[in-house]
Design goal:
Number of domains: 2
Structural class: alpha+beta
InterPro entries: Endo/exonu/phosph_ase_sf, Ig-like_fold, IP5, IPPc, OCRL-1_2_ASH
Distance between the termini: 29 Å
Helix content: 10-25%
Strand content: 15-25%
GO molecular function, one term: phosphatidylinositol-4,5-bisphosphate 5-phosphatase activity
CATH superfamily of the largest domain: Endonuclease/exonuclease/phosphatase
Oligomer: single chain
Organism: Epicoccum nigrum (Soil fungus)
CATH class of the largest domain: Alpha Beta
Protein name: Inositol polyphosphate-related phosphatase domain-containing protein
Pfam families: Exo_endo_phos2 (PF22669), OCRL-like_ASH (PF21310)
Length: 751
């Protein structure tokens, strides 16, 4: 029942009491700054917890394949004609130099694949360069659900005209996009696209996966000239699969050069990309948004690829080239370009070939000898770059840089004769890997603190009786020679990952290789194929369960919230006739009927606790205007309960002067007595500048307010009138002047 308190007010400022109160009181429930705010927060936490506990009811496990490709096209013309063949169709892989997974026995044989000689002889910048009759060696077409392609140098980044443009020209990216879309299967849709001068990142999803892709956000970070220009840097995209799994893709082009300063610049570039990359806040299906966007490290899975420009260090370029040329110069130029990468025993009784990693003459052995000199592996080991949980699949393929354009396995024959290197890489990191790194950092920090405490106590000095041997944690036990990455020749195992929201995912690297027989750039493209198993939310099921849980929590909260009912006395058949005529049975409040000077009018209300918990309540101070008296009641009204008020043992709302507590099902009665005897009030009522129209506020602690309207009909009086007005009163009294019939009796006469 609505109620509000007030005093007799002037008609020139009068307006609806209820409207005035509602403008000042924010709704029927208490302000969130009250203790009920904690209840609301608890409810939200409980809602999320229950939804999480019931996640199996609205999620379904799904397996998808993600293919990531990277290629520095060196701004060469015609390179866009090869992208569909190698990236979508899986063509251009040389079996002799194959990497992870390309020896799949289920792969189709290519007995009539074009020879290397024939392919090189027909090289033309205006035609595709992949070999004819190449059936593809890496999964593609409809076998892949998410295509992610990162290109570098799609425009000439050394051109001042390009670098100083105040905008990014999309013309070249559109040309690449057209070539890629022509090769993609029907129905694949563009998910994200981002360009930064020569860097271009694009993502396409299959028709079945596209509806599961949400919260797409792209950004870019320039780290080139002056640390911000776009000739170097990264373009990045974040997507959310199935409302559960966040994926981040970083396509970067780091600083070039083989000297120490260039290496330090690459390390700086990586740190800048990690620090400056920020994504838009994630908005869930219920419309709830994060307070701020996320950065790198907040995702479940991250993939970093591109021309990272890390080189082979500590070996003369000619020696590296000579070692690798042993494996490329004798490739069969005939119909089958296969080249055995392992040896076969001469013993007729033992014709089983040696595994490549055990054969001293194999390509894999040569690669294993070169990888300890790889700058990227060194920096990961030294904790300077990509050391915080990043991984890379086994490298079983030739370096991706630098080759003569138009040749299959001819390394840089120009005057610069650059050292072959794995400049182009595809790295990945899982949330579990990042957590393992963070845990190790914490443990190392705790160990460091303990060591410092021991040094302060002098326990690090020789001769201390409590010390059995000297130990330096900075140097002991580390000969600096072994790195598990150098022995990383085994196929990766599936990695279990628990998402931020508690869902279970799994990632497996299936393929990692380059495409040696793509001839249109001095870099060889490479790609990796991942299998991702994730829990996808079914939106309709989640919405239904969310509604069900919210309804149940509301019911429980309402049952636990104090609740009262207010019943107002009505005129009955036993009431005096004058009283029945003076009150309005349709009025939803306390109607005092006709009110006369100095005559008391009484009404009763009953308050009952209808909830399941004790209810504490009281009449609150009403909103007042300038001409009103403060307090819960107007000066002409008194309220008396048939129950003693609570003893004030703790602080409560300041606007409740007297509080009463009812146990569940307990009832209390209150008498409201109206009596007008103040001359100023009589004068205002006589002049009709004031009215008997008020609203009391019955406030329940931690519950909702009840508004109790009051009204009465003032019967004019000769009191408080001037002599000039009194002489004008006709025979029959003051009420005759106002067209009223004088009444000989009143309903209430007690004082």
């Amino acid at each position: 029942m609505a109620s509000r308190s007030g005093s007799v007010r002037s008609t020139h400022t009068a307006r609806s009491s209820i409207n005035h109160l509602e403008a000042q009181i924010p709704g029927a429930f208490p302000d969130l700054r009250s203790p009920s705010q904690a209840s609301l927060t608890t409810q939200q936490v409980s809602l999320q917890q229950i939804l999480y506990d019931r996640r199996a009811e609205y999620t379904r496990s799904r397996n998808v394949r993600i293919k990531i490709g990277s290629w520095n096209v060196a701004s060469n013309k015609g390179t866009e004609q090869d992208v569909g063949a190698w990236f979508v169709k899986g063509k251009g892989v040389e079996k002799a130099m194959a990497g992870l997974g390309v020896s799949d026995p289920k792969r189709r044989e290519e007995k009539h694949k074009e020879s290397v000689d024939d392919q090189e002889s027909r090289f033309d910048k205006h035609a595709p360069t992949v070999p004819y009759v190449d059936l593809g060696s890496v999964p593609g077409d409809e076998d892949v659900d998410l295509y992610v392609l990162g290109l570098q140098e799609i425009v000439d980044i050394t051109s001042a005209a390009e670098a100083l443009k105040p905008y990014t020209d999309p013309a070249m990216a559109n040309k690449w996009k057209a070539s890629l879309e022509q090769a993609l299967p029907n129905g694949y849709k563009l998910v994200a696209e981002q360009q930064l001068l020569g860097l271009w990142l694009v993502i396409y999803a299959s028709p079945s996966l596209f509806p599961q892709v949400k919260n797409v956000s792209t950004t870019s970070v320039g780290t080139g000239l002056m640390g911000y220009m776009a000739n170097k840097g990264a373009v990045t995209a974040r997507i959310v699969l199935g409302e559960t799994t966040r994926l981040v893709f970083v396509n970067s082009h780091l600083g070039a050069g083989s000297d120490k300063a260039s290496l330090e610049r690459r390390i700086w570039d990586v740190a800048q990309v990690m620090q400056r990359t920020r994504f838009a806040p994630i908005v869930d299906a219920m419309g709830t948004s994060q307070n701020q966007g996320e950065g790198l490290g907040d995702e479940e899975f991250a993939f970093w690829f591109g021309d990272l420009n890390f080189r082979i260090e500590g070996m003369p370029g000619n020696d590296v080239r000579r070692l690798l040329t042993v494996h490329t110069e004798h490739m069969d130029k005939g119909e089958d370009s296969g080249y055995a990468t392992g040896s076969v025993s001469n013993d007729a009784e033992d014709s089983v070939p040696l595994p490549p990693e055990l054969d001293p003459a194999s390509l894999q052995t040569t690669i294993s000898c070169l990888l300890p000199h790889d700058e990227l592996h060194q920096q990961m080991k030294n904790g300077k770059a990509f050391h915080d949980g990043w991984e890379e699949g086994p490298i079983r393929f030739l370096p991706t840089y630098k080759y003569d354009v138009g040749k299959v396995g001819v390394f840089d024959s120009s005057e610069k004769a650059r050292c072959p290197s794995w400049c182009d890489r595809i790295l990945y990191r899982t949330r579990a890997g990042k957590q393992r790194y963070d845990q190790k950092v914490r443990e190392d920090e705790e160990t460091r603190k303990r060591d410092e405490e021991m040094k302060k106590l002098g326990m690090d000095m020789p001769g201390t009786s409590d010390v059995l041997f000297d130990y330096d944690p900075e140097t002991d036990g580390d000969n600096g020679d072994y790195d598990e990455r150098e022995d990383n020749t085994e196929d990766p195992e599936p990695e279990q990952v628990t998402t931020k929201d508690g869902f279970s995912d799994e990632l497996l690297l299936e393929y990692y290789t380059n495409h040696m027989r793509v001839l249109s750039s001095d870099h060889k493209p490479l790609d990796a194929v991942f299998s991702l198993k994730f829990d996808a939310v079914v939106p309709d099921l989640k919405a239904a369960i969310h509604t069900e849980v919210a309804r149940e929590l509301d019911r429980q909260e309402n049952e636990g919230r104090p609740s009262i009912a207010v019943v107002v006395e009505r005129a009955t058949g036993s009431s005096p006739a004058a009283e029945k005529n003076a009150t309005d049975s349709t009025f939803d409040g306390v109607d005092f009927g006709d009110v006369k000077f100095a005559k008391s009018k009484r009404r009763n209300i009953t308050i009952a606790n209808t909830g399941r918990v004790p209810a504490t309540f009281g009449f609150a101070d009403r909103p007042i205007e300038e001409d009103q008296d403060a307090g819960p009641f107007p000066p002409w009204l008194t309220v008396a309960f048939d129950k003693d008020p609570d003893t004030r043992t703790k602080a409560g709302p300041d606007d409740i002067q007297q509080r009463y507590t009812l146990a569940p099902a307990e009832v209390v009665n209150a008498e409201l007595k109206l009596k007008i005897k103040d001359l100023d009030a009589i004068r205002g009522l006589n002049d009709s500048t004031q009215t008997l129209d008020e609203v009391l506020v019955l406030r329940v602690e931690h519950g909702r307010d009840h508004f109790l309207p009051l009204r009465g009909q003032w019967q004019p009086s000769a009191l408080a009138r001037t002599v000039d007005k009194l002489v004008k009163i006709p025979e029959g009294g003051i009420r005759r002047l106002q067209g009223q019939s004088p009444s000989a009796t009143t309903g209430d006469s007690k004082t």
